[in-house]
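As a warm-up, study this chain.
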Amino acid sequence: MTDTAPDPRIANIVKAGCIRPGLFLPQYALTKAGDLNPVGAGVVAHGLIGTLAEHLGIEMQIVQQPSPPKAVETLNAGGCDILIMGIEASRTEIVDFTPPVIQFDYAYLVPTGSPINETAEVDRPGHRISVPGGHASWMALKRKIIHAEIVETDIPDESFALLCDGKTDVFALPREQLIDYAAELPGSRILTEGFGVNDVGLAVAKGQSQRLAFINEFVKEAKASGLVQRILEEAKLTSRGFNVAL
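Now compare it with the structure written out below.
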């Protein structure tokens, strides 16, 4: 990459000596020691922004949030500098996105003994779908589901608990995240067909056109150079449904 340290478009970040990506659940997990461990899209953000920080000669400090709405609120309040999240029309009204960086699909998890075998069977009267509210998977469900009931929770673990307790019939989330949840519920199944694709980009607060222009160039170069692909492969995310966005 070219030397961007003196670029006036991000001079305030360089002057601060730190760039602060915000991650929200389930983009990270906490170890027993309380350390933050990036997961899924969080790994991509960590790899990309970490590379940028190293190139600029500054530090990276992750700001953790419980949900996408809280992360956006923090971004717009100046509590972090950048997010990675699904590009949704409703979100473009409150943050500005780069072009898509990565993409993956949404899927359904059903418990052992479930009569639901196909995605087309989910949206039927009487079925209840648990999903964390405010997430891109929740937004996709609200556009798609007509007959089933959508049960919103604050965080993914709460949605999973509802499925485990038999209070919902289906758990909806990105497929990559469902792989780990399925391992915790013996006999559960992830339905083969997804119910939508999540195009994920980097986001900055509204009104920061110069910062956005800089990050746009960074994303374009990161994809062209193979950096994004390497991050996915090294984290074994390609085998979990992640791809570099076209």
